[in-house]
Amino acid sequence: MPAYAVIGGQWGDEGKGKVIDYLAGRSDCVVRFAGGNNAGHTVVNERGEFQLHLVPSGICWPDVTGVIGNGVVVNPEVLLGEMAGLRQQGIDTERLFISDRAHVIMPYHIALDALQEQARGEGAIGTTGQGIGPAYVDKASRDGIRVGDLLDTRQLPDRVTAAVEMKNRLIQGVFNGDPLEVEPVIDLCRQWGEQLREFVRPTEQLVQDLLADGKRVLLEGAQGTLLDVDHGSYPYVTSSSPSIGGAITGLGIHPQAIKGVVGVFKAYSTRVGGGPMPTEMHDEAGKDLREKAHEYGTTTGRPRRVGWFDAVAARYSRQINGFTGIVLTRLDILDGMESVKICVGYRADGQEVARFPANTGLLERCEPIYEKMTGWDAPTASATRTDQLPAKALAYVRRIEELVGCEVQIISTGPSRDETIAIDPVIH
Ligand code: GDP
Ligand code: IMO
Ligand code: MG
């Protein structure tokens, strides 16, 4: 004991990778619990710059154990490539373990992701195309292949044959797509099993043992609460539970093990893919902010939609997760703006909307009610103490705290590990 969770408070890309790399210095183990390589987590420290999709973002610390938990969907090709890339950058990957219960993203999942998106036409979700949704569908429908199955060479050919044949019926019959050949998929699975064997463990036991030994375990969220399949802006969401509930099922630990839940928020908002975003800026100012902030997806390179900080959505996110603290990132991006805005309420159909609505149509119609604050001239970039922040920037942070109803424990003022203001160490 104890575990601390770091959860995306918005639509993903809040800077979780940076925060995890920073906090991992006070941890023994970093664990991914949901999502797959739809995630793109950027880590910048004295060892270089890293784009991590599956490997936990604590990997740069020599004594930190990395775990990919059962709730993650694993594309072995991507994982092995990422591990090889890290080794080339001088990072040791021997302390990385993968759950035998994690589901495998198979080639037909990637094919189906593309076919389904095409079939959705105008209503496309704008997925990352990594096969995430179809892999979670198979998990829920009990047709999935798990990492442990890749090691069972006796059963594997039959399992894979049945799966490919079933998917081919779907691919051809429903989507008029090209079928997959069975044998190459079996060979691929065999190779993956051989290459991953040494890393595969019953990770729920491993994490429970670490906690029982008094080790500090950091739970690394992927995506964000507003992309949660239950609590997000459905159907424009991912297929997993990126909020705190997903950490429990995605690791096999109990809620009492978790001492702190920190929500990571950007000082403004971004979203990639389709779906409502009440504070989206459609004007030149929005374009300027995107360019200044270089808001392009880590996984797909797509331009991210940008908008003002949405305190209605943030408060909702705080409630869903029970945040014990906030990490506010990218404050430096707002440096030099004449004024900044915070959305403090929604209005739709002539009435105020009290909370983040479940109905996508209603969320689409929500007009933000803004509070305008004076900007700041002096930079916050690279600050490491609150007394280095301009008063107006600090006032902005305090207002966010008030509106969300949760203390800001860390302010991030740049992409590097050391560009951080730790008001509270989070991990005790
Ligand atoms: P994640 O998916 O939540 O880990 O976030 P991403 O890595 O996809 O996107 C966040 C981007 O912001 C990355 O390029 C980070 O290097 C960068 N970043 C993180 N924190 C800060 C910050 O405080 N200031 C600036 N300027 N960049 C940051
Ligand atoms: P990190 O961990 C931002 C979005 C996609 C799409 C929707 C569904 O880097 O914050 P999927 O491929 O999951 O079926 O796509 O979810 N999405 C993300 N957006 N950051 C992410 O991860 C995301 N992972 C998925 O853009 O709108
Ligand atoms: Mg990202």
Architecture overview:
Strand 19 (408-412) and strand 20 form a beta hairpin. Helix 3 runs parallel beside helix 6 (156-173) and helix 6 (156-173) crosses helix 7. It is built from 13 helices and 20 strands. It is α/β, with parallel strands linked by helices. The strands form 5 sheets. A 10-stranded mixed β-sheet has the order 9-7-5-2-10-1-11-15-19-20, sandwiched between helices. Strands 14, 16, 17 and 18 form a 4-stranded mixed β-sheet that branches. It folds into 3 domains: 3-99 and 200-261, 3-Layer(aba) Sandwich (Adenylosuccinate Synthetase, Chain A, domain 1); 103-196, Adenylosuccinate Synthetase, subunit A, domain 2, CATH 1.10.300.10; 265-422, Alpha-Beta Complex (Adenylosuccinate Synthetase, Chain A, domain 3), CATH 3.90.170. 6-O-phosphoryl inosine monophosphate is lined by residues 8, 11-13, 38-41, 125-128, 130, 132-133, 222-224, 227, 238-239, 272-273, 298.
Number of helices: 13
Classification by helices and strands: alpha/beta
Main-sheet strand order equals 9-7-5-2-10-1-11-15-19-20
Shape: globular
Q: Which CATH class of the largest domain applies here?
A: Alpha Beta
Overall pLDDT level: 97
State the end-to-end distance: 11 Å
| CATH fold-type name of the largest domain | Adenylosuccinate Synthetase, Chain A, domain 1
What small molecules accompany the polymer chains?
guanosine-5'-diphosphate, 6-O-phosphoryl inosine monophosphate, magnesium ion
DSSP strand tally: 20
Number of domains: 3
Strand content: 15-25%
